[in-house]
Amino acid sequence: MKTAVLDTSIAAWHAIPCDKLKTQNDRIEAIVTASDGDMSLGEIKIVYRGMFQRDVPEDKRIEANTVSRAVNQLITAGRLQRRETVRPCKFSGVDIHPVFKPPLQNSLDIQVE
Fold first, then answer.
1. 96-106 b/e with 16+ CB inside 10 Å = b?
2. What CA–CA distance (Å, rounded) separates 101 from 111?
3. How far is 44 from 35, CA to CA, in rounded Å?
4. What is the rounded distance in angstroms from the CA atom of residue 47 to the CA atom of residue 88?
5. How many Cβ atoms sit within 10 Å of the Cβ of residue 84?
6. Are 90 and 39 in contact (CB under 8 A)?
7. In the prediction, which pLDDT does 2 show?
8. 44-75: pLDDT as tens digits
9. What sign for the dihedral angle of Cα 22, 70, 36, 104?
10. For residue 78, which of 109, 107, 47, 100 has the smallest C-alpha distance?
């Protein structure tokens, strides 16, 4: 399927440096990183909508299943972790295992003999 796009639009898109393009996963990771501690999927969804989708119609906004998919991919990649302990979600009140950004490892802790 071809879309009618002007050559200038295509050129402009390809001129954007890769480091300037943020994916949905990158945005979700940034939201969790900026939080004070940890977040539930519902909390991430509310913040994402407020930050990136204010002018988007309700039926086109990010949903919980999309947040869940992104969080699972981030956990698999080691970019987020899920807490073992539960706490209530700030919005739904349901007990959840929140996700958090693991601290960076400062050294390899390799002992040289």
1. bebbebeeeee
2. 27
3. 10
4. 17
5. 6
6. no
7. 60
8. 999 999 998 999 899 999 999 999 999 999 99
9. negative
10. 100
Q: What is the dihedral of CA 90, 95, 96, 97, to 10 degrees?
A: 120
Q: Which residue has the tokens 């939201």?
A: 31
Q: According to the model, what pLDDT value does residue 77 have?
A: 93
Could you tell me if 33 and 92 are in contact, meaning their C-beta atoms sit under 8 angstroms apart? no
Q: What sign for the dihedral angle of Cα 110, 79, 35, 39?
A: negative
DSSP string for the chain: ------HHHHHHHHHS-GGGPPPHHHHHHHHHHHSSS-B-HHHHHHHHHHHH-TTS-GGGS--HHHHHHHHHHHHHTTS-EE-SS-EE-TTT--EE--EEPPPPP----PPP-
Mean pLDDT of 10-14: 68
Sign of CA pseudo-dihedral 101, 94, 47, 61: positive
